[in-house]
């Protein structure tokens, strides 16, 4: 991987704007060989190391342990910036932030202190295999330990991670969320990720074969019991908002990449009766970029708003969050997500109209923007997001918490 090392990575920023600039530097490094890396689809070990070296992995980590102590609104913007250059690495970074915060979503105060010190001091990177639609992972209580057997699909990033988050089900039906060493015996990677987009996320399946985990790795459980609260359900909203920011970044990256090609390479059309000397003078090209920019400014404004709204809840007292607050945030996140999927896919398609036929050459890899957004936006049906917003607009009903809302 060509990362074009940035010398000031040795000095970490001390403010939000500095971290956003750091994310742009990382994005520039990733953009340099994004097409080649995407084509080779190798496990992104070097890319994860770049995130670590840049300090982005510990962005949310407490200052006391050497982390940046930044807010979620910053982390979401960082995810967006990285996704402009490489949607796969933007996804892995966003998911890392989610799993790094998992202990705050579900854990006890003691678990929070222990896990945050562990990952921040060691600059550990998280992956996860928690797909709730896979019910095959059986968790057996063996006294002081839990034994896991089964299979999980979409273990995004686990292959290149230090810690992996797992979700399984006890015999009595209770879900158990655990954090384990990614190199644990019994955690078997199947290397079967072969999709048209997000090719570097290593989102293949894992098999759990007699994986033994101590009970204290079960997040939130005390004496084998757990007490749910509304704050727990913010994890699903945070995941949805990570996706939304990632999609915004991919769409912005598509537009910016297309604009550079149009400025430098696209030729004007000589058979229209209104011949121009430059493609940048073509009225239909200007109209298209005006449309792209207007739509992405609109989605950006809505996403920025909900970023701040959710960030306030995430950084507030856990016990103070109400289902009303949670529902109000959920419906706006649903609105933002469904809009950027629509606008982003349009940009990813129409960008070729303003670049021209030669832009379809495989060496450019411009189709990766559409493929990445198309692949990941199928995570859960966008029609259900539209329905949630519709029920709120028409009936005043807030979305009910679920594994996808």
TrEMBL record:
Cited Gene3D superfamilies? Acyl-CoA dehydrogenase/oxidase, N-terminal domain, Butyryl-CoA Dehydrogenase, subunit A, domain 2, Butyryl-CoA Dehydrogenase, subunit A, domain 3
* Ranges of residues in domain Acyl-CoA dehydrogenase/oxidase N-terminal: 20-112
Sorted alphabetically, the keyword list is: Oxidoreductase
Highest taxon of the source?
A: Bacteria
| Domain annotation Acyl-CoA dehydrogenase C-terminal: ranges | 249-379
Question: By its UniProt entry, which InterPro entries does this protein fall under?
Answer: Acyl-CoA_DH_C (IPR013107), Acyl-CoA_Oxase/DH_mid-dom_sf (IPR046373), AcylCo_DH-like_C (IPR036250), AcylCoA_DH/ox_N (IPR013786), AcylCoA_DH/ox_N_sf (IPR037069), AcylCoA_DH/oxidase_NM_dom_sf (IPR009100)
Membrane-crossing residues?
none
Return the protein name: Acyl-CoA dehydrogenase family protein
Species of the source: Actinomadura alba
According to the entry, what is the taxonomic lineage of the organism?
Bacteria, Bacillati, Actinomycetota, Actinomycetes, Streptosporangiales
